[in-house]
Amino acid sequence: MVRDEPGEVDDGRSFSWDCASSGVRTVVEQVLTPRVAGGCTATLRVIHHGPAARLVGPVLNRLTRRYLRTEAEGLKARSEGRCSLSGSPGAPAMP
Q1: Helix (H/G/I), strand (E/B), else coil: 94
Q2: Residue 76 DSSP SS3
Q3: Could you tell me if residue 94 is inside a domain?
Q4: Residues 6 or more apart from 13 whose CB is under 8 A from it?
Q5: Which domain holds residue 59?
Q6: In the prediction, which pLDDT does 83 show?
Q7: Contact 68/44 with Cβ under 8 angstroms?
């Protein structure tokens, strides 16, 4: 059984969520760090914990990286105002 739970939220700075199944607990974090010259840097991180983590991490590595890349591209597009109402990255900006 897979269990998803909201994690910590620091409004405007970071949030995380947890997903647990037999032998593995996965924590996903998104953190925004302000830049001195303006704007910010987004850090997306996935951490596997538990007795089966050493097995799950390498097996899911490619898929996890693809999900993180998609998430980062969507976050960048939304923050730069380049999303349509459907939320698709690269779509014309919303009016």
Answers
A1: coil
A2: helix
A3: no
A4: 31, 32
A5: 3-79
A6: 53
A7: yes
> How many domains are contained in the chain?
1
CATH code of the domain in which 54 resides: 2.20.25
- Summarize pLDDT for 68-81 with one digit per residue, the tens: 899 888 888 887 77
Maximum pairwise Cα distance, the chain: 49
- The torsion angles phi and psi of 69, rounded to 5 degrees, stand at -65, -45
**Tokens linked to 40:** 């910010």
pLDDT, tens digit, 9 for 90 and up, residues 4-63 = 777 888 888 888 888 888 888 889 898 888 889 888 888 999 888 898 888 887 888 888
Residues in the chain: 95
Please compute, for residue 85, the number of CA atoms within 13 A of its CA located in the half-sphere on the CB side: 1
Query: Do residues 43 and 15 touch, judged by C-beta distance below 8 A?
Result: no
Residue 85 lies in a domain: no
